Amino acid sequence: MLGKKLVTAQKRGETRALCLGLGMVACSMMMYFFIGITIVPSYTKSVWTAETVCKVLKATIKDKVHCSQNEDSEDESVFHYPCLQVWVNLTASGQEVMLYQTEDTLERNPKCSYVPGNSENPKEVKTRIETIASNFKRYQTFPCYYDPGGTQTNVILSRLYPLKGLLFAFLWPTLLFTGGCLIIVLVKISQYVSVLSAWQ
């Protein structure tokens, strides 16, 4: 009687462990799919792949000409912010080009080097932009990214998804997948040993 109870408890534990392993594998597949349709296209689409050194030529804030998220809108409630423009000397080619924070900054507003979130406090945004401008004037030389193919003549300060960030994004689903597969393998080995012991 006790032996039957032990066998039943063992089967239940194996079933639960097997479900856990399969669940982990399924979750890792979903994470791979999500990364594949969001982060990977953004990484491969970016043309700013080569790193060089940029030297600040001028950093100006256009206080009188504010940039908005939607230039065609005449609504006064549209979020406006001071437009920071940073021009740098590209060491790789010696050209004078405009600097953007990331790839997304260029898409959102090609006139400004920095685009804040539209839900932020206008006073805080103005203070932050002034701080960024002063930092650029203080630190004249810094690493930046440019397009080696020449399709984009501007440069960016940092990539949204660098290679390290992409590898880090794949790290967690890989660990989850490996752990799930390991659990499944251990359960199968345990079942095989149990059947072998019973046969002997």
What do you see in this structure?
The chain has 200 residues and is α+β, with helices and mostly antiparallel strands. It has two domains: 50-161, no CATH class; 162-199. The protein is 52% helix and 22% strand. The chain has four helices and five strands. A five-stranded mixed beta barrel has the order 1-2-3-5-4. β2 and β3 (96-100) form a beta hairpin. α1 packs antiparallel against α4. The relative contact order is 0.19. It holds the Pfam family CaKB.
| Poorly predicted sequence stretches spanning 5 or more consecutive residues | 69-77
Strand arrangement within the widest β-sheet reads 1-2-3-5-4
Q: Can you summarize the main beta sheet?
A: 5 strands, mixed, barrel
What's the number of extended β-strand segments? 5
Mean pLDDT: 82
Order of helices and strands: HEEEHHEEH
Q: Over all CA atoms, what is the radius of gyration?
A: 27 Å
Overall shape: elongated
Proportion of residues in extended strands: 15-25%
The total domain count is 2
Tally of helical segments: 4
Regarding quaternary structure, how should these chains be classified?
Answer: single chain
What share of the residues lie within helices? 40-55%
N-to-C CA distance: 20 Å
Q: What class do helices, strands and sheet pairing give?
A: alpha+beta
GO molecular function: calcium-activated potassium channel activity; potassium channel regulator activity
InterPro entries: K_chnl_Ca-activ_BK_bsu (IPR003930)
GO cellular component, one term: voltage-gated potassium channel complex
Organism: Casuarius casuarius (Southern cassowary)
